Each structure stands twice: as C-alpha cells, then as structure tokens.
Amino acid sequence: MSANARVSKAVEPGPVRSSDNFLVFGSPLIEEAEVQEVVDSLRSGWLGTGPKVARFEQAFQEYNGARYAVALNSCTAALHLSLLALGLEPGQEVITTPMTFCATVNAIIHAGAEPVLVDVDSKSSNLAPEAVEAAITSRTRALLPVHFAGQPCEMEALSALANKHGLVMVEDCAHAIEAEYKGRKMGRWGRVGCFSFYVTKNIVTGEGGMVVTDDEEVASRIKMLSLHGMTKDAWHRFGDEGYKHYFVMEAGYKYNMMDLQAAIGLHQLGRIDRYWQRRREIWARYQNELAELPLDLPLEPPAHIKHSYHLYTVLVKPEAGLSRDQVLDGLTAQNIGTGVHYLSVPEHPFYQKRFGWKAEDFPVAMDIGRRTLSLPLSAKLSDSDVSDVIQAIKRVLRV
Predict the structure, then answer these.
(1) What is the pTM assigned to this prediction?
(2) Closest-CA residue to 52 (of 69, 76, 71)
(3) CATH architecture of structural domain 32-270
(4) What are the catalytic residues?
(5) E-state strands within the chain
(6) Domain residue spans in the chain?
(7) Does position 8 have pLDDT exceeding 60, yes or no?
(8) I want to staple 257 with a disulfide (CB 3.0 to 4.6 A). Which of 71, 252, 275, 340 is the partner?
(9) Is 211:69 a contact under the CB 8 Å cutoff?
C-alpha cells in the first residue's frame, strides 16, 4: 500500500506530555563534573587545543586500545583527514553505504575520491559483504563501513575482502564507541576508526570527533592536517617551555578540538559503561513493550557482537495504516521528539545530480529510509520518560 493510499487515523485527544515538557530527542546527560571542568578551562585561559585535549586523547586511546588517538572537531573531519592521510588519489573509489548521514559520503568527495554505494542488509541496515564484493573494481581503493545504530558490520567478512583486494578500510564508528565484534572494539578492525562526540552521541563534547589508528605516520599526518598543516600545534608553540617556531608543511585545515570540548569529554568517557548500561535497559524495555505494535523492531544483537545501543530505530509496517511521517507528526503532537536515521543518501537532490544515483537502485536502503524513525534513547531518560514514549506511540498507532 502506498503512503498516499493509507488511511489516516486520528490520534487520541490530549498529548502525553505538556508542551513545556517536550521530550527532546537525543538530549545528553551532562553532570556537574563537566560543568566544573569547563569552568576550570575558562579560568585557566586554555580554551583552544591544550592540555585537556592531550588528556582526552590519552584516555580515549587507552579505552579503545589503539596505539594513537587524535582529537578533532567532528567525526566528519576525522573521516576526511583519514582518507587524505591514507593517500587516496583523485578518481579512486571508496565503497560505502547509502544508509548513513551525508557526512560519510561528503568526506569521500572532499578527499577527491569517488563514492560507490552498495545496498544494505535488510535486518541490520549495515553493508552486505556480498554486495561489497560485487562492487569492487580495479579503481577501488578503500572500504568505508558504517556501524549503523551501534551494531557492528560483519567485520571478518569485510576484512577478508579488504585483504584479498589490497584495500584500506576506514571505519565510521560515529554510532559505535562501545561496540565490539568478537571481542575486538570497533575502530580496531580498519586502518583507522573515526568516532563522533556530537551532542546526540553516546558520549558528547558538543561537537567533536576522534581518530584511532596503530599507524604512527597516519596519526602524525592527521594531527598536522588538523591545524593548518603546521608542524607544531598551539599548545607546543605557547607552552611553558617557551615559544616554538612552526613550519607549514601542507595546506591543512582547521579541524582541531578545543580544551573546552575535551573538558566535557573527559568526564563523559569516565561514565561510558554506566551510560551504556542505561541505554541497554531502555532498549530492552522498548523491545518488550513495543513487540505487538505494527512495527519492525531492531535486530536483536547476535552473540558475537556488543551493540552500543546508540539508536533505537523502528520501521512502520504498511498495516499500521499510517505513513512514517504521520507517525512522526503524531509523536510530535504528543510532545515526544524523534529522529529519522536516515533517508537513504540517493534520496537527496545533490547526489542525484552529481552521481546520477536513484533511490530505486538501492531498494533495501530506500525502503528502510522511507519507513524508519528513531525513538528517544539516552542515559538522561527517566523510567517515566520511557513510559511516556511507549504510551505516545501506542496512542498514535491506536493500539
């Protein structure tokens, strides 16, 4: 049944929550320690890249297990600089997913490479390894898997393909800080892993990102490119050891993280396991209490992976009698914030014009993108908040 042919259903009168108590989607849990750490940065005078960025890099490197970690101002910057540092040349192809935020594809474009999309698995929304293999050509240089919603891709299969064809792999781990595949953390399978600390992510710095790698040369080049291509960053130039002259080695970028951001991230990272456990509890409750609704619920994590529980995405079934957008509007009327992750990349006009992509060429991603919505999933949510979300979606679906 098409969206236009569906019969609209009226929503129960009266919202679940008052308008002044709107449940904001993805609102982060900020505690007093972060507030005081930011105040300390303000009083110290170190607002830009300084000692707290170095501490955050060290803490994240230890958490992830990589040899090197470089803090940046976004995961987008991390993806862009990783591709540049790996030496991609114009015209070389990077295979990635249509079920992702535009930043993944934009980073490939900005690096001068050509993005190649392949369709996703209908259950996990992740890259299907068999589709990846079919898309590899003599021009393919890299794989860029995205661990959608926090569930790892099938990394053994993708790693085998990369090794077989001599490809480098860059992991988009924006959703997957805590995730593991067969006991190995995400970001540790590829040559580099890229993480996000955006305000809706599992741990936050407001804006921010991180690259992890075991390759010293790659880490050093990313660090240099992140601050104008200079040989020394601001901390080394103006530290208490005296002024250090710098030299510009490349035309770099302004992608560095500030101490003000790292001040938040240091304490967020210290609570990462507690926050993960809370999101897992909320996820399990959704799985139990929404099971009878006309929705396709997320895939339960298989035994060989640790899910990071970043997004709780559902697909509206045709028998719901409502389109996805009608459900979104109904939840908003109940004062429940939602997200859409994502309209498939080929739905967007820029990519249609630039590459000639059509959504219909990626039917699984197209179907997911047109039926999906994300419910609130944050360590900040109280049990009462979760009850409101469940009650609201039941009222919208008249169940």
Answers:
(1) 0.94
(2) 71
(3) 3-Layer(aba) Sandwich (3.40)
(4) 201
(5) 68-72, 93-96, 114-117, 140-144, 168-172, 180-181, 184-185, 192-196, 209-213, 295-296, 305-306, 312-316, 372-375
(6) 19-28+272-396, 32-270
(7) no
(8) 71
(9) yes
